[in-house]
Amino acid sequence: MQRIALVTGASSGVGKEFVRQLDLQRGGPLDAIWAIARSKDSLQEVARSCTNIPVLPIPLDLTRDESFSRIQEMLETQNVVVEWLVNSAGFGKFGDFVTVGDNQNASMVQLNCLALVRMCSIVLPHMHSGSRVINMASIAGAIPQVMLATYSATKAFVLELSRMLDHELAPCGIRVTAVCPKFMKTKFLDEPGDSQSADGMCRIGFEDVSHVVSKAIDYAIMGKATCIPSLHMKLLYAASRCMPRSVLFKLEDILFR
Ligand SMILES: NC(=O)c1ccc[n+]([C@@H]2O[C@H](COP(=O)([O-])OP(=O)(O)OC[C@H]3O[C@@H](n4cnc5c(N)ncnc54)[C@H](OP(=O)(O)O)[C@@H]3O)[C@@H](O)[C@H]2O)c1
Question: d(Cα 191, Cα 95) in Å, to the nearest integer?
Fold first, then answer.
């Protein structure tokens, strides 16, 4: 039986870095890494850059039904056990809700929430005791952020779902970790929607992608349900939990708009 890792959003940014660190066996020995995203060329480039573990590029759009049937079929017909599932595919658009618009609001829910739920549902039956799920949430899921309403809400969903799944699956030895970084310099910010809002929000600063991924893997191995890699964000999260939402949002208006 082949031990595999399955990484979504593997063509760039955080997902690509997960593939790199899993290839370095940061997550233990593996026989293959299945890398999913839409861009075939970028996935092939990621596969070529890995030297220790064979990487299988699987170009799929996770907003389409048939993509999940394909993954399910691959899991059922190949003799594999999934050691790692990393759900990194996702995107966010900045701006007020109406300006972000129907299409982008709906697409964020579809990719950030629905695709992640479907990946977990399909993959979990192929995991065993010791397997790990990492879900990319965001600090915006832990501390809701103005001018990022739908994105914040999708990431709050990811955070809560991960915590509940971790509780449910812990007796089987499968642990689920939600990762909540602040901003990172990836393609995520290439087309942010309202760039003025994005510039305002990015005043909280950036985290290093490889540090975030390294912490995420460490936390997952330790069996922690939530990973907030930055100490500043941990403190801010603790403070925000003592604050009424109305006060938090007014403060954010002053600081970021
Ligand atoms: N960067 C940040 O500031 C930041 C902060 C906190 C949390 N996050 C979260 O971290 C995760 C990774 O983001 P990132 O920074 O690595 O951004 P990124 O560089 O834009 O990567 C996003 C990945 O998702 C894939 N993707 C997008 N739409 C897809 C679709 N319909 N089907 C399949 N794959 C799709 C993209 O590949 P293709 O385009 O090839 O499909 C790409 O591999 C996201 O969930 C994001 O919300 C990011």
Answer: 12
H-helix or E-strand spanning residue 135: strand 132-136
> Which of 38, 40, 189 gets mutated to test ligand 1 (max ligand atoms within 8 A of its CB)?
38
Out of 3.30.950.10, 3.40.1190.10, 3.40.50.1820, 3.40.50.720, which CATH number does the structure's domain 2-256 have? 3.40.50.720
Residue 198 pLDDT exceeds 90:
no
Domain residues of the chain, as ranges? 2-256
Predicted TM-score (pTM) of the model is 0.97
Give ∠ CA 100-164-127 in degrees, rounded to 5. 100
Cα(256) to ligand 1 centroid in Å equals 23
Which residues have C-beta atoms less than 6 Å from ligand 1?
Answer: 9-15, 37-39, 42, 61-63, 88-92, 111, 136, 138, 181, 183-184, 186-188
In the reported structure, the alpha carbon of residue 146 is separated from the centroid of ligand 1 by a whole-number distance in angstroms of: 21
pLDDT digits (tens, 9 = 90+) for 31-78: 999 999 999 999 999 999 999 999 999 999 999 999 999 999 999 999
Helical residues (DSSP H) of the chain, grouped into ranges: 13-23, 40-49, 65-77, 97-108, 116-123, 139-142, 149-169, 195-201, 209-222, 231-241, 245-256
Averaged pLDDT of the chain: 96
100's tokens: 């972000």
Q: 193: which strand partners?
A: 94
